[in-house]
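Task: fold both queries, return tokens.
Query 1:
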Amino acid sequence: MRKISFLHTADLHIDTPFKGLGHLPEPIFHIIKDSTFQSFERIVGLAIEKQVDFIIISGDLYDGANRSLKAQLFLKTQFQRLENEGIDVFVIHGNHDHLAGEYVKLTWPDNVHFFSCKEPDMIPFEKDGEILAHLYGYSFPKQTVTENISSKYKKVDGAAFHIALLHGTSGGSTDHHTYAPFMLNELKNQPFDYWALGHIHKREELSHYPHVIYPGNIQGLNRKESGKKGCYLVEMTKAETTLTFLDSSTVRWESESLSTPHSDTVDELIDQLLLVKEKFRATEVNTILSIELSGESPILQSLYENDKLDDLLDHLQEGEEVEEPFVWVNRIKAEPIDTDVQKHLGSSGFMKEIFTIFEEMEKVDSVLEPLLKHKKAKKFLDDDSFEDEEILEEAKRLLIESMALQSER
């Protein structure tokens, strides 16, 4: 029976700078900064271990179009490892690593196949003298591709399996900027066995008949991209297709909600927090952890009102730079205020108007988007510069809590 196996991966974002984390202890920041490299190296190791036929990379190999020579040489070394094992690599470029960037051009190993940026094209995969699969793909010639590229993919007969690579946005998704948009039914109605998607950093299996799959990115880049990250092992026969998720995370972003109604002393609260840390350390994966405290505990209320949460955070971070794996508590958020008070505030006309203003502020990236396209300004900005609303969230929280405290007096 004819069969193929491959790893489907996307959104490597090699050499992500991890802006805003430079305040971390140097050993921890070094691990985080190197995490995208290490995660892809793990994926290459998995490909060799599983003895797959090829790897698919559905766009955004690099974090920026002006990819560094360091990042390119790293990928070339990893691709050479795969060539030595007889494993092919099929690549499309996406909006982050589009082909209009300024970068040093390298010669790539013969096992690496890049798809055209002019029109979607087909590249055959051959094994033991037989063409087993036709792979189809399209690379972004520039950052902004807003047309429906998927409609231009055309099946070419002559292979048992037909696999399409696409970097784009499924209709209705608002998690990322819209590029190469498509509707799910459009892909399902086309004669392909597997759509290997990229761009959305969240793992999603949109369809199984045929398979339309987002593997997510290989390494979380911020606290919104929490949990396990990695790739799919795909094994196909004419009768069935099986998917197995493989974790490649070097550092995981995680969050934990902790209710503290019975914490009567700071010591008891710290003991609870240390148990949370050890739970994540037991995963044996480096972790950046956000903790949200809630409840009507007097000690939590006292810490909050006396602005002592930062002291608590410092205590939880102490010594983590020498731990393996580390569990770095990057953020403690406390909500000690009665939820009934918050609901009451939310029903008032004044607060409804305030919440509407916050919602409009959260759309600030759409206002600033023209700057990202400006030839000079874009050197100092990137898409991710406006994706972290932490300051906005904190302002919103402080306002609600201040109003709540006023209403209790």
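Query 1 returned. Query 2:
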Amino acid sequence: MSPSHGAATPAAGWRVVFACFMSALFAWGFGFYAHGIYLVQLQAAHGWSTGLISSIVTAHYVLGALLLPRIAEGIGRFGPRTVLLAGIVATSGALLLLPSIETPWQLALLFVVMAAGWNATSVAPIAATIGQWFDKQRGLALNLALSGATAAGLVVAPALLAAIATFGFTDALRLLVLAGLVLAGGAVAAFVRRGPAQPPPTGPANNRWTPLKTWRFWSISAPFALVLIAQVGFLTHLVPLVADRPGVDPGFAIAVNAFMALVGRVVLGFIIDRLSPRPAAALSFLVQVGAIAVLGFAEMPAMIYGACAVYGFSVGNNITLSPLIVQREYGGGDFPRIVALSTAMVQILYAFGPGLLGILRDAFGSYSVPLAVCIALNLVASGLILLRPRPA
């Protein structure tokens, strides 16, 4: 039900949205946008290849995706507050140890811990938490909560880059992670609790995986998987992509991208109820094609920042539109289950984005081929998302 009905109050529901915003800010800030920063710092400290580090990031996303159905069950059993707090603590612990590692296996071990933390604080648990509080306003509430993911690129990543320049990688990362632990963990502890609309019990394992046999499910999941392979890979490599271009500040490029992602997400939040989300998604995918093409050859800082802005306008929406399509095309009782399963499948596939682009970068000596692959993936996704299944 909506927070305006029954025992739930509007204030309680919107406080949950704020806490989910803070969880998303933490999750995407340290568990998504900062991967490119970790890549650069680990290369400088240890000389490890782009392909090695990117492949570990890929394995981290795959493992986390496999945990998502269990995380969804954990929300039903223990409540969203416990799951979100556990994710924030797990991610914090791994990142506090990150500057001290000396071998690739230690990096892999920390990313195993971060895999659980990332997936306990990002799209699926946030969508499930919002779904307990909102019905008619779910699209707006989810968009506002996930705006924290966009704000993360505007706040956390640039702040981390600036702090590294002043304090060094070790002190900067630990200082900001502790601040994030206090702020995000405090908001979740104070405001998140079970909502009035409880999720239905999870069915047997064979029923849980039944949607995988239908085009209805894959007509949503497949195009978003393709576009997020490109998007996650692109954003993971954005810092090294622009770092060697004269006059370009990588931190500012991330900030421009993130600011426009926030603008795009807020704009979509207020108009999505009047739009058909599938054509909106196709347009969002195509906008990124033009931006990637410009970044493939641009050298002038203004053109690079402009392309980052255009690309960023679609970044947040490509995360939010998938659960909104699920909301439109599946029953309310199926929403948490289908969102968790779709997010898991999409994440398993987009997990290969950072590793794929890193390996292609090493193989061809530049980012030209990786960017061409991103363009191709977006073009295919824009066609697939329009192949709407027949009504059930």
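Both queries returned. Flag for query 2: The chain has a mean pLDDT of 82.
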